Amino acid sequence: MQTTSFSRKQRFRHGFLAGLLAGILASLLMLLLSITINGISLPEVFGSFFTQLLPPTAFDYLHLKIGGDAKHYLFYGILVGQCLVFALSGGLWTLYNPETKITVGTRFIASMIYQRIFQAKYTSKADNKMINRGRDESGPYSEINRPVQQGETTDVQEFLHWSSGLYLALLLLLLTGFVFLPLTGAGILGANLTTGLASNILSLAIVGLIFGLLFVYFQNGQVLRAARKQQGKEIDEGVEEAGISRRTVVGTGILAVGLTTLGIIAFRFITSGSSSSSPVSRGNLLQQYKTKITPPPKPNYGPIQPVPGLSAEVTPNGQYYLVSKNLFTDPVVNGKTWNLTITGEVAQPYTLNYAQLSALPMKKQYESMMCISNEVGGQYMSNALWEGIPLADLLQKAGGPKTGASKVVLYAADDYSDSIHLSKALEPTTLVALRMNDETLPQGHGYPARLLVPGIYGMKHVKWITRIEVVNQDYQGYWQTRGWSDPAPIRLTSRIDTPTSTTALQAGKQTYIAGVAFSGNKGISEVDVSLDGGQSWQRATLKQPLSALTWVLWELPWTPTAGTSTITARAIDMEGNVQDPAIADPLPDGASGYHSITVTAS
Ligand SMILES: Nc1nc2c(c(=O)[nH]1)N[C@H]1C(S)=C(S)[C@@H](COP(=O)(O)O)O[C@H]1N2
Ligand SMILES: [Mo]
């Protein structure tokens, strides 16, 4: 009698591949559910946990790139990891198949359903047809139910019931819900997440169900193919080849995706390191550096030529820099059901809906923002006209903060939170903004409402706010628990927008050096440009800013000489503080140093 026998390695491989395929599809379904029904996205939860575990310096690199592509790589990396966990669970499940312990009843039902749907079976009846496809009394499990004969291998146990897949899914679900999620701080079944317990359970159950069924489907398909191959006297060559090539293709595909992801991260890492070196000698700059000029310079306002490459003074909404912690998608909040709660250490907590909030008196102000992970000369800086309700008014409406209150915490729809000091919260320019450049706040910038808090970095400008809580103790926000500054005042900076290292300059032909300078809420009194590595400085013309809270456009006419030139810029704020030339990475307080570029004229 012919028997098929699979080695442990083969059995593991079958389960692993089946788990991988089912895991990929289940993971895609998970993402789909997270977008459509606000289901839980485990890669998002684990990504957030992972960034908290890493030492801040190790994560610095990734945060530098957040808003760019790196966070997506992190996300896809974790997604690949999740698929591998599915695959591993499939391999182990097949290897240590606990099927024999599953009741005969569920086996029978599962086997019936299996036959009904797929009409595929594997049988070793002595009709010399080891494999056939078609309806028959014996199902794929008839073999298992038969007592195992002496010397016979038990490969057929690799055929799984639907119920077996569901048991595996249940096991994974229990592990996730009661072990892994609580370990990340998300609570049992992710109860602490804003997605909500009901939506978590529903989405996990759907994903689990689909994974379990697909796993059994792929597993049995593979066993069938492998058995055919082994007993292959009557195999259909075409089918067999298709089986092998599909397996090979999938395996190679996964490998390729994984390697590409790693490659891109490595490439980014290498190139980011090389671009941070500055063409200007630090010694010079530091030697001559005076931290403060008293009295502060009087700004040199004047007309600015509209030169190509210079930032628009007001950034259009579509071009405003975008940063969020969210690895996959930002929350889409429904303004019709959304409301904002003011609570904590206040006399009368209350809740307003969007219409009620919009009806309150609003204030318009130009304000520029900068991300704390922006490097000197970087692009995570923009300016807009905002409109919103002063936070002080909202707190006053609640009877004001109680004595002893020290901080205000802002909670958002994406499980992000941050705090600001009460004194900062009460400043008249701290707003809960509903509008941006005369439009409803765009979704990506925090619709329905975001915080504006001039003078401190972008991370404190909490988007998609749901709750504002006055507290009487310290509170560390999302980025603070990852090593970043809590007070987070903006560090004075200036950026050369034009020319760039790739601009084709003509020697002897006048052009303009131009850019922006920003201090948060301390204004800009002067911007200087040096063409000799900081030995001498020329004063640029400043465009009178739209408010005391915005960046300032600056410009200097310049006639390049043939060859290369190095251009360096520095700013001075309205208090006379001079931009710090010491190079500092963004972590933990924001970057410092001077922006320098090397250009060539011919
Ligand atoms: N809810 C929420 N608010 C958030 C963030 C976030 O991830 N979630 N990111 C912060 C960071 S780090 C920055 S720099 C600003 C960016 O705002 P923007 O995308 O409108 O430019 O939003 C801040 N507010
Ligand atoms: Mo940021």
Explain this structure to me?
A hairpin with a 4-residue loop joins strand 7 and strand 8. This protein has a five-stranded mixed sheet with strand order 4-3-12-7-8. Strands 5, 6, 9, 10 and 11 form a five-stranded antiparallel sheet that branches. A four-stranded antiparallel sheet has the order 13-14-18-17, with no helix packed on it. The chain is of the alpha+beta class. It contains 13 helices and 20 strands. It has helices at residues 8-36, 42-53, 56-65, 70-95, 104-118, 142-145, 162-183, 197-230, 237-275, 282-288, 354-358, 391-397, 422-425, and strands spanning 120-122, 131-133, 339-344, 350-353, 363-370, 381-390, 407-412, 417-421, 431-436, 439-440, 450-452, 465-471, 493-498, 511-518, 526-530, 538-539, 541-542, 552-558, 563-572, 595-601. Helix 1 crosses helix 4 (70-95) and helix 7 (162-183) packs across helix 8 (197-230). The radius of gyration is 31 Å and the shape is globular. 42% of the residues are buried.
